[in-house]
Automatic annotation (TrEMBL):
Binds 2 magnesium or manganese ions per subunit. This is D-alanine--D-alanine ligase. Mg(2+) 2 binds at E291, N293. InterPro entries: ATP-grasp, ATP_grasp_subdomain_1, D-Ala_lig_Van_CS, D_ala_D_ala, Dala_Dala_lig_C, Dala_Dala_lig_N, PreATP-grasp_dom_sf. Its EC number is 6.3.2.4. It comes from Pedobacter psychrotolerans.
């Protein structure tokens, strides 16, 4: 018997554009013989289903149900495809937990913690063979000393919104006098900001998911951006970065990276598919953790679809395995 799935897209941050594209990919590849899918848009104006031939139909948020022509539709589960708030930060997960509706992502606690780059680094810091760049976490209106930060950290460094995504509000600071402007830019996106020393290394991004109780690491993608770093333009403009899937790692690096990725996934109590970004430092080959994305992009240019293809399975098979693992 078919299951009825809500595919939740949109959101309330600048990442909503990416979310809509991700949902389009997912909707196109979900197995229609197994699932009836209703794409639900969530934004500042409401939560609604918009059929092609009619006006918007509001979701009843009391029980997350939909009424179409007198027929009440309740969902067996939710495929959350919202990047940023409220899809990736635990808010929606908490809501669905209270309604006892299963969903495809990490739970509320893991989602909330991993949206905070500084807190995430603190948790994964003691995993074997994993390194983290030296950093300072500051709060808007907090008691921080700009001069002390400049003394404590070596240039260049990245200034980034602590809970942001898609590199929005991020700056690479090369001169100390650029720090204030970079902080102002980041604070427009988030009341917490992370200032992190630059790691000179090759950049990779790798997906990992659990299916049939087994944690599986996807082929990694090596990222060679044409820009100064892998910014929003490079992430979402075809041709703005060279992306090599599978990325070039030797056998020892491959085995070490897979063990670290599985350890991060397990320690953070992840569920569904997540993506972990990392550097392999030029001089040492050390693995430096950058960040984790618990709702990674699924657009035509995103890494996960590339990596699924490199693994030799279809997106239909992949999404079916995710839905069976998380929703049943």
């Amino acid at each position: 018997m078919k299951k009825t799935i809500a595919l939740l897209t949109g959101g309330t941050t600048g990442e909503w554009v990416v979310s809509v594209k991700s949902a389009a990919t997912i909707a196109h590849h979900i197995d229609a013989e197994l699932y009836d899918v209703y794409k639900i848009m969530l934004n500042d104006h409401g939560w609604f289903y918009e059929p092609a031939d009619s006006v918007k139909i509001e979701i009843d948020r009391n029980d997350f149900s939909l009424t179409i022509e007198g027929r009440r539709i309740k969902f067996d589960g939710v495929f959350i495809a919202i990047h940023g708030s409220p899809g990736e930060d635990g808010k929606l997960q908490g809501y669905f937990d209270m309604l006892h509706i299963p969903y495809t992502t990490c739970n509320a606690l893991t989602s909330a913690i991993t949206m905070n780059k500084g807190y995430t680094k603190a948790i994964v810091n003691d995993i074997d063979h994993l390194y983290t760049a030296k950093s300072v976490q500051i709060f808007k209106g907090g008691n921080y000393d700009i001069n002390q930060i400049k003394q404590d950290l070596k240039l260049p460094y990245f200034v980034k919104p602590n809970s942001g995504g898609s590199s929005i509000g991020m700056t690479k600071v090369k001169q100390a006098d650029e720090l204030e402007a970079a902080l102002e830019k980041a604070f427009k996106e988030d009341p917490q900001v992370l200032i992190e020393e630059f790691v000179s290394g090759r950049e990779f991004s790798i997906g990992v998911f659990s299916a049939k109780g087994v944690v599986t690491v996807l082929p990694t993608t090596e990222v060679i951006p044409a820009n100064e770093f892998f910014d929003f333009e490079a992430k979402y403009t075809p041709g703005a970065a060279e992306e090599i899937t599978p990325g070039n790692m030797n056998e020892e690096e491959y085995e070490r990276v897979h063990e670290i990725i599985k350890a991060v996934y397990t320690k953070l109590n992840c569920r569904g598919v997540v993506r972990i970004d990392y550097f392999l430092e030029h001089e040492t080959g050390n693995f430096y953790f950058i960040e984790i994305n618990t709702i990674p992009g699924q657009t035509a240019t995103s890494f996960i679809p590339q990596q699924v293809a490199a693994m030799g399975i279809t997106l239909k098979e992949f999404y079916t395995s995710l839905l069976k693992e998380t929703i049943g």
